[in-house]
Amino acid sequence: MSVTLTYSKKSYANHTNTIAAINQVLAQHGLRVSSFTDGPRATRFIVQLHTGVNISKLKKINDYMCIALGSNEVRTFFEGDKLIIESHTNDNRVDLAEMWTQDYIRQRDGVKLMLGKDMSGQSLYADLAKCKHILVGGVTGSGKSMFLHELIISMIVHDPVLTQLVMVDMKGTEFNKYAAIPYCRTIDTVQEAVDMANRLVNIMNKRYQTLAKAGCRDIESYKRKGGSMTRIVFIIDEYADLVLTAKKSIQDPIIRLAQKARACGIHLIIATQKPVNAVINTLIKANIPTKVCLKVNTSMDSKVIMDRTGGEKLLGNGDMLFLKDGAFEPVRIQGCFISEEEIDAVVANAVESCNMLKSDDYNEVETPKGKKTSGGFWAAFKRAFGS
């Protein structure tokens, strides 16, 4: 798959005057800036602390830094033996072309998800298998939908035999572009979403029977023995609205999938703009190990998503905290921007790639409710899972 994208290299501002202003405030404490890292949305000035520094006075230094830098977008905090002064004055967008390198496109070792760039400007990726399931939370304008597009495109660029995508879009407009791809299915009604969740539970149970007969623990060991099993990713946008409408009829199968599905290659990506305990309950949080918190309104919302505060201090527009499975602290990331034209180009190339496969792989088949789908999604399901 080859998509032509425009790459614009970022040129970060010269921080000589900023460092001089910070050093002027730090001089009374016998400190100075030792280094800095330049990220897309913020610059971190790092101050190495030494023995004898009055920490209690440094904790009150934030207001002085705001005055010295002439900005309210300044945050100071401690990381080990360092004082970090974070200035949120950058406005450099991360483009898809910066993440979508030739090495990324060529790699075939699992399904790598594009995340964005960290505070030092390094591109970060995550392995879908290691993420297991992903919980995403953020208010309107936080960049939640853009981040979902980022994950979807990450999976689309891989060989279609690796991943099948099912996307629940209650608005009916967010993911409709992907419906043209044979191995993608978009759902925009509550009943269809409930039916799909229950169908995936049945597929999960059949897969475990297959794994047990083969003497395998998970999908990876099954593939090593020569077996063929496709990963399925169930993506739900606006999960809170779905729960408020369908209640336990959607919650029960989602919880079962979260508890058991990861080992047999079924993954959940659940996004919500209403991170409340009634929606993201204890069982959901306990069984979805990877959390992504974008801008939220309160520290309580941040705690619901990732059991810690910090999300309420984010800047929005893709500024996020990424807490991967097993990590003690989240990583701050700026997600990338994806234009409508880039999405169209990716979809067109994916459709073209699928047309090169056998035509009978994507024949029109009936859904469980007796309806027809021309996307060929159910044909792929029937072929892969015998369901």
3D architecture notes:
The chain is an alpha/beta fold and 387 residues long. Strands 6-5-14-13-12-7-11-10-8-9 form a ten-stranded mixed beta sheet. A four-stranded antiparallel beta sheet has the order 1-2-4-3, covered by helices on one side. A two-stranded antiparallel ribbon has the order 15-16. It has two domains: 16-87, Threonyl-tRNA Synthetase, Chain A, domain 2, CATH 3.30.980; 96-385, P-loop containing nucleotide triphosphate hydrolases (Rossmann fold, 3-Layer(aba) Sandwich). The chain contains 15 helices and 16 strands. The protein is elongated and about 70 Å long. It has helices at 16-26, 55-58, 62-69, 96-99, 102-106, 128-131, 144-156, 190-214, 219-224, 239-246, 248-260, 282-287, 299-306, 340-355, 377-385, and strands at residues 35-38, 43-48, 74-79, 82-87, 112-118, 123-127, 134-137, 163-168, 184-187, 231-236, 266-272, 290-293, 319-323, 331-334, 365-366, 372-373.
What's the arrangement of strands in the largest beta sheet? 6-5-14-13-12-7-11-10-8-9
**Reported CATH architecture of the largest domain:** 3-Layer(aba) Sandwich
Rounded radius of gyration (Å): 23 Å
Extended strand count: 16
Total separate domains: 2
What would CATH call the class of the largest domain? Answer: Alpha Beta
